[in-house]
Write a structure and sequence with these properties.
This protein is α+β, with helices and mostly antiparallel strands. Helix content is about 55%, strand content about 15%. The protein has four domains: about 180 residues, no CATH class; about 100 residues, Beta-Lactamase (2-Layer Sandwich); about 80 residues, Orthogonal Bundle (Helix Hairpins), CATH 1.10.287; about 160 residues, Heat Shock Protein 90 (2-Layer Sandwich).
Amino acid sequence: MWSATANDPSAGARAGESVLPDDHGLVLWLRALFATFVVGTGIVVVRLATPERAVGGLLAVLGLMYVSVGAAWLGRRRGVRPAALTAWQLAADVLFIGALSQLAGGAGAHFRLLFFVPLLLGAHYLGARGAVPLAVGASLVTVAGQIAATLQTGAPPAGAAGGAILDGQFSVFLLLLVGVGAGLQADRAARRGRRSEEAAAALWREQVEVRNVLDNLASGLVIVDRTGRIVQANPAAERILGVFAEEIVGRDLEGAFGGSLDGFSACVREVLAGAPAVERSELTIMRWDTVAVPVGLSVSHLRDASGAVSGVIAVFQDLTEVCRMRERIREADRLAAVGELSASIAHEIRNPLSSIRGSVEILAGELKLTGQQARLLQLILKESARVNTIINDFLAFARLRPARRLPVPCDALLADAALQVRQHVTFHGGDVQVECRCEHPGLVVEGDVEHLTQLLLNLAINACEAMSYTGKLVIAASPSPERAWCELKVLDSGPGLDEEARANLFKPFFTTKKEGTGLGLPMVARIAHAHGGTVEAGASPAGGAAFTVRIPLAGARAPAAAGAMAPALEENVTAAGAR
């Protein structure tokens, strides 16, 4: 005598509707059993109260109720709208209850109480728009039953007629009252449920948004409650601190981080104990994997609705790249000062040196010196020429002209550099096997061909001198994995790089050669920087040194980090070592 429709968890309760159960089959079986019980009870009551009355009508009502259950099952299988199916079954139940009341004779008044079952179910499942029509229908069925009983038995006595009328009016009034009241309460409950679902959905969306913000935040974030227990840590905090959130959340600061992050824990603990918030503090933490990480830390109080401190929130960033940039800026400032000083010194020395050398050359042509005096004169000429070479290198380093960037094919660039290196080796009587590799013949860089040739020659000749002009030299070009750079590599089989060279890589005037000026590698670094690239030095697979210069490919955009850093730095050099 009731039904159900499917539950749609995404839709929520609408005004005037209730979310119906999902198991239709079980409800239909229960409805059939209940109908059997009610009709069976009616048959028993009729047999006991009025044995002379036939029970054929009751059995017919039972059969019709079974037919309605079957029709509801077929409607469910064919996809009839659940609300319509429910309304139809409840209306049929009202008619069946009215028929039972009429067929039960004198006991029919007791069966009228069953009208409240479809009314309450209609209010629950359909709201006021279902309960009120059902109440009106039940009232009409009650009045029609009374009229039919009067016509069938004739006019009752005067007192009995008044009692029957009063009983009917009371039943109608009660049915309408229950139908309207239950429907309004059901609608109110549905509205409350809908508001509750909307509030829960809004809360869920806000939680998802906050979680997405925290998970995608580049800065580390750790939230600690008033007892010092870690409440939350985002993925950036895991990466910077070298921990896992599932291992530290729920533990206190000291237990979560141990002794490796004492400075971090102490700063958070001080603010939690009542110290002023830390706007910006820099400290170096030592992670469990012995990696020292400089971090910028800000710690602020968290307050509850009453304004009391309920915990602290620590926001921090990994300053490793910032520290490297600072070091590069300091190096750039130093190189800029060296360049200015070199230019001024070169101008001041070059003029008197030219006069001295010219005078000595004149004396050497006029004087006939022998022995020690001749050797001293030759020494003056030799050293003055060397000083002039150093001054020219100073000026070339300090006055590097701006790069004229054009598309440069890498295969032609490498072939030209390899040819000049072979001639240089032949001139010095060396035995160096020069190999040229270009993995992609169509690889094109954007740069100044003269500068790039000078860069490769400086690295290659430096490698030949380190190998004492005996060994193997490889000049190679290949695209980087991200396809934004061309990696120009110079590898040798020489003695490799020592610790002292690593500490002084690309510093002007640092050299391990007897007659070197120490400006070759700084010149390489300046050329790479002028092209918006970098230069790195490491170990070669053959055991010697390996230099890798990254130059932007033609038509490709370099990564933002390098592009943004280059204009601000005089030198953008990362090094693992130098000869």
